[in-house]
Amino acid sequence: MDELIPLSNATLDQLPIEHPQYDRTRLTPGIVHIGVGNFHRAHQAWYLHRLMQAGEAHDWAIIGAGVRAYDAVMREKLLAQDCLTTLVQIERDSTFAEVIGPMIDYLPIEESNGPLIAAMADPAIRIVAMTVTEGGYFIDPATKQFSSNHPDIVHDVEYPAKPRTAFGAMVAALRLRREAGHTPFTGLSCDNLQGNGTVLKQTVVSLARLTDPDLADWIQNYVSFPNSMVDCIAPAVGPNELNLVHELGVSDAAPVTHEAFRQWVIEDDFCNGRPDWDHAGATFSNNVHAYENMKIRMLNAGHQVIANAGELLGISTIAECMAQPLIAGFFRNIQITEIAPTVAPVPELTALEYYELIEKRFSNPRIVDTTRRVAFDGSSRHSGFVLPIVWDQLAEGRSVRGLALVEALWARMCLGTREDGSEILPNDPFWDKLNATAHKATTRPAAWLEQTTFYGGLCSERKFVEEFEFWMNFIREQGCIAALTEYQNN
Fold this sequence. Notes:
The protein is globular. A five-stranded parallel sheet has the order 6-3-2-7-8, sandwiched between helices. A three-stranded mixed sheet has the order 5-4-11, sandwiched between helices. By secondary structure, the chain is an alpha/beta fold. A hairpin with a 4-residue loop joins strand 4 and strand 5 (about 95-100). It contains 21 helices and 13 strands.
């Protein structure tokens, strides 16, 4: 193999793959993005790159940011290659690679978030976007309200000028903008949350109200928080993905692999301008809820249907789960009988058509999306993705048999062992609590549903409790394979 070409502005014209044709030295910032992971670079950053390739949005370049110590590793990697990223699109029978360059800087990571606050207070920044995971918004899973008792939030209330959280930094920056007479920025959540803009607004306004009610009112009245629906599978990168980039002749310390499918539906509510992302394939819509409801329930909840069973059976990837007939049948039956009835169509497709699309996407063996990654943070994902479907099914008097099995499999997974006896390492911020409760539930299944932090009042819903107890007892006595077989045979 010829010598690898390192990514940098100086080597762009030497690259053997598609790369920025715009002059990156002339880009100026308009967006701060907090949480520069694989998904952000394969999704939001890609849309902006396509605009820049077309000669648009050169004043909307991204400044990357993070609020945790581990973000410094990504910062170091990206700054060493001028914030360029190789994206490798993987389909079943083809591969397409390109280098994108809409990010021009990455802020220093400091505990008090001084550099982040200063950047967001700059009037040139008109959008602050984020991907901090659906569990990162300090929302009580049961009430869906802002939770002010987290130690990081307590700190931000006590030291508002030196916050630990992204939201505390946003409040501090908005305070500086208001004092200077500057227009506020738009807060744009790009996480998988129902009403993600509404959730972001609730967190920011609630936090501001604890220290400065007048500022909270100003944010409430003048800052935009559009809802959006985001979709693209971008799995974690390991040695195989790095080697794939090397085979292309490129040296990239932080490449991203992703599927071909992308979707971004955004509420057109920006208080200080925005790029024309629709020119690159995004959709601006006043009906984001219908799109996000379809995606969150069928894809994100669907992931939870698959992942816990796969973890218990020691299956490494989502594609391998879909190749297991019992899991694939379980997935299909629940989608059609218990999830799809709660999903309204969108202009482009029906719920069943969307199911067929995600079945194909999940089954792509070249997308190495690990079962463990998908099963991570089940406490947020089950309460946010699966349980709203349960409540809707109960309200309409429809079946919850399969969904009860989904929850029973999660409880069984939280015991921390697979069916072959191997250990499942902690995989949730509440792992110790979940593990202890899972052990109690082996003899008294209702103990699992009595976790009101996650389940609210579901333990009072007799129909669901009976189904759940049946499956917990069945799994304890006969195992996961037998439970999946029983579900599909009866």
